[in-house]
């Protein structure tokens, strides 16, 4: 779910930054008349050079799925006290799940269908992970899942305990 939120925020930031470039053009100095310093030399040359076009068309670098999964595993491995076999198996499940989430994001279906697909995918992934855990780890995993779904409540509880 955090991945979905992160991707939506990334999409919003990307769209907002492109609109700012389109609105102000040429780093905000080309106000439609000249380059703002009394001469017109260079402003048209920069606009036509293709440099501005390539800058506005570049997509932000996507974080590889493996890096994201490694960070997740760093967090849950000590909490759940996972052995190496469990780490590898859960990592593979999370990588597969995140790649599927990426495909679902790109799918041309309605938002309701995407949400339903994400929910189903998360349930299947959680069920597969639970199969790999022992009883103590399952309880801890449920607690971690609940905390990740409502991080504000978990932070408040931690602050009250301190």
Mean pLDDT across the residues is 76
SSE topology string: HHHHHHHH
Number-wise, the strands total 0
* Number of helical segments with 4 or more residues: 8
Low-confidence stretches: none
Euclidean distance between termini CA atoms: 28 Å
What share of the residues lie within helices?
over 70%
What's the overall geometry?
Answer: globular
Please report which band the strand proportion falls in: under 5%, 5-15%, 15-25%, 25-35%, 35-45% or over 45%. under 5%
The gyration radius over C-alpha positions equals: 23 Å
What does this protein structure show overall?
The protein is mostly helical and 162 residues long. The protein is built from 8 helices and no strands. It has helices at 2-24, 43-48, 51-57, 65-80, 84-106, 111-132, 135-149, 151-161. It is globular. The model has no long low-confidence stretch (mean pLDDT 76).
Chart the SSEs and their pairings:
Elements: H1 2-24, H2 43-48, H3 51-57, H4 65-80, H5 84-106, H6 111-132, H7 135-149, H8 151-161
Write a short abstract of this structure.
Helices cover 76% and strands 0% of the residues.
Short descriptors:
globular; 162 residues; single chain; mainly alpha
